[in-house]
Amino acid sequence: MSDAILTLEGVYTDIAQYHILHGVDLAVPRGAVTMLLGRNGVGKTTTLRTIMGLWVAKQGRITFDGEDITQAATPARARAGIGFVPEDMGIFTDLTVEENMMLAASTGPLDAKRCEWIFTAFPPLKTFWTSEAGNLSGGQKQMLSIARAMAEDRSLYLIDEPTKGLAPAIVSTMASALKELKAQGASILMVEQNFGVAKAIGDYAAVMDDGRIVWTGEMRELAESAQLQEQLMGLSMEAG
Amino acid sequence: MIMSLISGDAPRSKTLTLVLIAIFLGLALAPFLFPGVRSLDTAARIAIFIVLAASYDLLLGYTGVVSFAHTMFFGIGAYGVGLASQHMGRGFGALIVGSLSGALLAAALAFVIALFSLRVRAIFFAMITLAVASAVAVLVSQLSWLTGGEDGFTFKIPRALGPANRMGEFAGVKINGKLLNYYVVFFCSLMLFLLMLRVVNSSFGRVLQAIRENDFRAEAIGYRVVAYRTIATCLSAAIAALAGSLFALWLRYVGPDTTLSFAIMLDILLMVVIGGMGTIWGAAIGATLLVLAQTYLQDLMGSAAAATEAIPLLSRLLDPDRWLLWLGVLFILSVYFFPTGIVGRLRSGK
Amino acid sequence: MTAAPDHKPTFADVPLSARIAQAMPFLLIPILVVFGFVAIGNPSSWLTLTVSGLAMGMMIFIIASGLTLVFGLMDVINFGHGAFISVGAFVGVSVLFAFGQWAAAPSLVLNLTAILLAVLAAMAVTGLLGWAFEKVIVKPVYGAHLKQILVTVGGLIVIEQMIHVIWGPEEIFLTRPEMFKGAVTFWGAALEKYRLLAVAVGLVLFVAMRLVFRRTKIGLIVRAGVENGEMVEALGYRLRVVFVGVFIAGSALAGLGGVMWGLYEEVITAGMGEEMMILVFIVVIIGGLGSVEGAFIGALLVGLMQNYIAFLEPKLALISNIGLMTVILLWRPQGMMPVVKAK
Known about the structure:
heterotrimer, B: mainly alpha, ABC transporter involved in vitamin B12 uptake, BtuC, two-stranded antiparallel sheet, two-stranded antiparallel ribbon, 4 strands, 4% strand, C: mainly alpha, 12 helices, 74% helix, globular, disordered N terminus
């Protein structure tokens, strides 16, 4: 992991009176997919939200593309090139699919070429282009959520459990879209509970426990060692 | 003995204790310490507004609910006594019937409003109470055959409490019905105040505080937040109505301006916030300060305005009628800089 | 690129009853108008009352729209919104007096110019005041409802008192510009000219607002921000800046409403804003806090209801709005068109 696009050094985050992150150290390699793994409640989502600036790190340093962004506001981080796909998908249900996508293009009009690319990856979005996003099915909402992050060139994507609760067919659509994204040169930091998906698209893995990173390495290494999986993540991971 | 009277809720600050003792003694001995019609009237107002502000604090400070209908309840109590005295004839019976029915009606109304609005969002309650209170104020001035409209009406109270009832002299002060009336007001206020201290220091009061701190958590622990808030709202309304009854008894008059106006609502807010929310004691200090200031500071402003007559804008700013302007500024500043009010300041300073 | 797997995208079917429920608030207005027609029985009185109800509703809507959006976007409730109504009215009327000759001239162009100047001045001053109010009063208390209510009430008191200091303690009487005095007769019904103007202005504003919300990026940001402000920020927009803009625009609209209301009543007082706020609160509550369309429907309902009842049963007019609010909250506790909140 020589060239890191994002580094976290000793990041502590509190939510109200609860201490969630206790010194997260993480380097996200450029141009690769890094899986953030671990049991429920160890601070994976909080880590992503802290990187995005939605929670403020009370201690530590976050560096993105060589810039210290620890104190930057959320919109500034987004414009610096971080795309965010939250766990609840963050779809604007009152707006149409088109309007959701228009908003996602924050620096100008939606690029037609990109649109075509997104339609190829997620055909239903084309079908329902002018419908209210609130009427989409769960899988379609997830497609829209990722498509929104893809509407502009971002160098880093933070994606929180994109396959949660989706039918297997849609999971594989997601997986291929994410691979496609990586092929375009983007870096991805992704929280994933489905070990099969993690194995299929992850290059690297970082495992969290109790608000810290406890293991980092290549995804392949983790996937091959049942013992390592057992030790790091217990049995809560779904079997791949 | 004293601790049990005040339900173990000590002021917890030397200065605060001294100030509170001074207020208590000042009110208890007002007729003898500050003879004169105006000072006695001021003392009675202070006693009544302490109760009114404390009952509001029960809501605002202990449950975090903002209501703009508190003067409505105050008015209901006042009109209750006024109407009962007018229709049943003067007498203590009318006073009691009027006060009790006022308190009951206030509690019932509070219950209905609470049912509607506490369930949704706290912010609804503020807006709905504002709307309902203003509708009631307009209604009262419209139903002039019953309420005397904008002018209100005067009524007769028991002869024993009137100034014509002369009972000799004590320590150079004439003992008459007016003085007796003052002590009725004073002791009733004192009892209501002690009752509120008891309520907030009971287990019920502690649940209310838990809800104020974190209603979500309180709900999770198993307290029925809406039920507790509803009870607090009703209690606060009933006590406000009783304070209104005392006010009517003291003035021998009820009218929209003295009991229902939005200006009084603002006074109550100021008293509670400046005194210190969530302490009950704060209401005592805030009410005393505000009533005193209202009575005597306005004179001061009048002379200041006269002195600066040559300077056009300044003299207008100092006009006694612009008194609210300065209170408003003080109010904003105290919400920002002294959110715990005078009591909080004194306690943290020891 | 791998082809998407073959799964048929389907829409969750929206049943008819749900569609009706969705459209119901819009239907309430014609229902109320028809009810008014039946109850009043006299077409010309009904027409007069309907126009004045609509005029009143439009003015309330203009004032309420800013308040409800400010709440929707940042969860800020501004109890001092009424101060902008009063300030707008005083500034506007002062300007109108300054151009008294234009207003008194029997020329539609001169009259409209005078009104326009008054409105522009009022909106400029209240917009500026809104900007200062947001900065000084509201900003330090984001996220704390209790303090927001207290502090904005404090701001209301101070601004109202400052009106007394600047314009004196007395109410100010005024007359409408020459061409907007009196009424036109239409189908035997006397329709006050000024009310027709108020309806027209309100409609134009509503349509303009809808266009802004549907067709512009800033409109999209506001709509999305009401639902999920966090996500809007995560997409790279500075929601706070948008919010301040909405706050300023809302204050300016309240100022406009103040001028219009002053011309409608032909008298202005420092307390007029505070009095109007009662109706405005009722409107935003029944409309659903945060919903501009809800506020529009709510405002028209309140305006029509008040005018019909005042004709049918004058004693009830004052509490008819409380009654309306009660019924609507029983039916939909969150208001007619509650905004979807992500959290």
